[in-house]
Design brief:
By secondary structure, the chain is mainly alpha-helical. The protein contains three helices and two strands, in the order αααββ. A two-stranded antiparallel sheet has the order 1-2.
């Protein structure tokens, strides 16, 4: 990685395999005893996936709590890498 670049590492192949398996799962039905009284109509309306906003807003009160660190900083907002708030310039090459 060159100095000053913000590169997201590739996902480990095992992680990709797990995500593929999760994508194949279906929601439980009322035939599953533990899910018999769940709100199935509302569950069916849910959508799952990456955050819809590429740059989520963060309240100032939260930003104030991020310490100034002397080294690389990776900031994730709602599970999404935030390159603007991350500092990867001092990462080692390996």
């Amino acid at each position: 990685m060159s100095a000053g670049s913000n590169v997201i590492p590739r996902a480990h192949p095992a992680s990709v395999a797990v995500l593929d398996q999760i994508a194949e799962l279906t929601l439980p039905t009322k035939r599953h005893e533990a899910w018999r009284h769940a709100p199935h109509a509302q569950l069916a309306k849910l959508s799952f996936g990456p955050a819809s906003s590429p740059t989520p807003s963060v309240p100032a009160s939260v930003l104030e709590r991020i310490p100034a660190l002397d080294g690389p900083t990776i900031v994730l907002v709602n599970g999404v890498f935030d390159a603007a708030r991350s500092t990867l310039t001092s990462c080692p090459e390996d």
